[in-house]
Amino acid sequence: MNILLTNDDGYNALGIKTLKALLNKYGKVVVVAPKTVMSAKSVALNLREPIEVIKESDDLYIVDSTPADCVAYALSSIGIKFDLVVSGINHGHNISYDTMYSGTIGACLQALTYRIPAIAVSAEHNFDLVDKYFDEVMSYIKSHNLLSKEYLLNVNFPLGSEVKGIKDTHIFYRKEVTYYEAKENNTYQALRILKDEKCDDVNSDVYAVHHGYISISKLGKTLDYYE
Questions:
Q1: How far apart are CA 116 and CA 164, in angstroms?
Q2: Which of 13, 76, 106, 168 is the most exposed place for a label (fewest CB within 10 A)?
C-alpha cells in the first residue's frame, strides 16, 4: 500500500515524524508536507502564484504552500498511485468548530476530491499516547470497514495518559467566540475564547476526548468529479 503523509505543522514537526514511524509497517510512506506551519488553512489552495516544491528524497517532498496544495500536488504530479492519505499528528485537538478551519482536515478533504480514503490524526501534547494506541486504532478502522472515498476519518486522541476505548462520534458544537485584539500599526490578533466547554453528549467528539476515549468521526463528502 502506498501512503501519502502530510500535516499542517510543517514537514519537520514531531507529529509527522512520529506518525511516519507508525505508518511504515502498513506500506510505503511518502511525506509531502508544508515547508512552514500552515495551521487553520482549511482547504485553501494557492491558485495565483507558483509554489516551490523541493524533492529532498524519494519519500520526502517539501512544499511551500498549504496542506491541501501538498495533497493535490502529490496525487497529481509525482507519479505514485496512493491508496491512503494520512494527515497529522496535529499538535492540538481537531474537534467541534476546529474541523472547519483545520489544515490537517483540509488535506484529507482534498484527498476526497481524488477519491482517496483519508485519515486525520490529532492529539494535544501526548504523542506517546498515539504511539501506544495507533495500531489499535488502525485495527478498529479495518475491522469496522470505516475507510471510504465518501468521507474522511477524523481521529482525536484523548487528554491524559490512558485510553478507555474507541468511540464512533459526531461533532459537538461547543460555545465559543472569536474576537480581534488591536495591536500596533493597524494590526489585529485573532483570539478565541471557549465560553462553555461542558458537554453531556456521550456520542460526541468533545465528550470522548475529555473522558478518556479515542474519537473517530466521519466528516465531509466528496463530489463526483473524479469518477
A1: 30
A2: 76
Query: What are the E-state strand segments in 17-169?
Result: 28-34, 53-57, 60-63, 84-91, 118-123, 152-156, 165-169
Q: What is the CATH number of the domain that holds 155?
A: 3.40.1210.10
Strand (E) or helix (H) holding 158: none
194 found inside a domain: no
Distance CA 106, CA 103 (A): 5
pLDDT in tens, 14-45: 999 999 999 999 999 999 999 999 999 999 99
**How far apart (Å, rounded) are the C-alpha atoms in residues 11 and 22?**
16
DSSP state of 164: -
End-to-end CA distance of the chain: 21
Identify whether the C-beta of residue 4 lies closer than 8 Å to the C-beta of residue 71: yes
In the chain, the amino acid numbered 94 is N
> Is 44:38 a contact under the CB 8 Å cutoff?
no
pLDDT of residue 199: 81
Confidence at 192, pLDDT banded by 50, 70, 90: confident
Band the pLDDT of 177: cuts 50, 70, 90: confident
Residue of 132, 71, 73, 60 lying closest to 104 (CA atoms): 71
- d(CA 44, CA 32) in angstroms, rounded, equals 16
* Count of domains forming the chain: 1
The structure's pTM equals 0.93
